[in-house]
Design goal:
This protein has 72 residues and is mainly α. It has two helices and no strands. The longest helix is centred in the middle third of the chain and has 31 residues.
């Protein structure tokens, strides 16, 4: 006699919703960082070669503003 196959568990709507929300929050945060980094680029007079510096500064400012890291 064959053993019954275990039923595949479906991800609950709550877990799917939480996952979608997390992805959305990450996307918004990334967009916010990009926007701030672009503002820093413009403030510098659109001088090329500082993209990583601008991105890291924008990330730091937003994380500090959200209280997720302490200011230097």
């Amino acid at each position: 006699m064959a053993k019954p196959k275990p039923q595949r568990k479906e991800i609950s709507d709550d877990r799917q919703s939480a996952s979608s929300h997390t992805s959305f929050v990450r996307r918004v945060r990334t967009d916010d960082i990009a926007e701030r980094a672009y503002a820093l680029y413009l403030a510098r007079g659109t001088e090329d070669g500082h993209d990583v510096e601008d991105w890291l500064q924008a990330e730091r400012e937003l994380l500090e503003g959200a209280g997720l890291i302490k200011p230097d």
